[in-house]
Amino acid sequence: MIDFLLARIGSAIVTIFGASVLAFAVLRAVPTNPARLIAGPFANDEVIAQVTANLGLDKSLPVQYLDYVTSFFIGDWGFSYSAGQPVLSQITERLPASAELALYAFLFAFFGAVLVTVLVSFLNSRWLDRFLRLLSFISVGVPPFWLALLFLMVFFERLGWFPGPVGRGPAPTGLYTGLFTIDYLLAGDFAGFGTALHHLALPSIALALGPFGYLVRLLRANLLDIINEPFVTVLHAKGVAPISTHFRHILPNAFLPTLTAGGLILAQLLGGSVLVERIFVWPGIGTLVIDGILRQDYAVVQAFIMLSAIIYIGVNLLVDILYGYVDPRVRRS
Length: 333
Fold this sequence. Notes:
Shape: globular
Keywords: Cell membrane, Membrane, Transmembrane, Transmembrane helix, Transport
Radius of gyration: 24 Å
Number of helices: 15
Membrane topology: Multi-pass membrane protein
CATH topology: MetI-like fold
Structural class: mainly alpha
Subcellular location: Cell membrane
InterPro entries: BPD_transp_1_N, MetI-like, MetI-like_sf
Strand content: under 5%
Distance between the termini: 8 Å
Pfam family, one: BPD_transp_1
């Protein structure tokens, strides 16, 4: 197990190195001088040269890259000149909003897909299976931003059941984690917890329906493959109870691809969902990055690329560790 973890950690380091090189190279390939953008259109050559020196853009590319990587890992993520504050402060301020939205969207998509698919496969109902297939196809094919607009038109404007595009709602008096639902629970304010969930409902469901449909299709296909395996026939012949066969033998064998896909979906959601955040005026990092791209704020974009790579690698490493607990074959190997 230790060798397995060391191999995965080594692979993660190589991947982070590749992401850092990509972020550094792509942004410097853009035919725009960041110093001129920061100095303004009326700055003379002397001012632009001074800004270039302050940014370290007058150094060689290898030295710039080493400065960039070193600064990132010591917590210096650069300065956002468009916002007038450090990038780390901006991301730290907005990351909890994106993390909370991603967490609830993932819970709905992953656990909802597993629960519904396993239940339908266990009941072995043709009509329920057809309905589930139809629902999964529709969920995968509909863009999240279109769902977000539809939800606002129906559930906010027409029915008035949910709040509109007003962001996260009122903040709790004491912020411990930055996640409103958890902070309300820690404060014992259950009314505030309900209000936070009320604001989270529409954007999280709009984000979750696509991954929900994908996970349903993936798990259903794997379950059907495993159900037809010879060992399942042997279990039935030995008189093993159907519920035990389904949940102790079929599901664990069919679950690994779903676990992998779930990890990738969680990492993707944690990276921010730009259009849905825009539509619901959600103060997450997706909106921050779009503003950084539009304003050509390279420090924000570079930090986001590195942060996204670390999130993806961290989640994948966690999924690899969970493999050993889900599948005994991985644990033995």
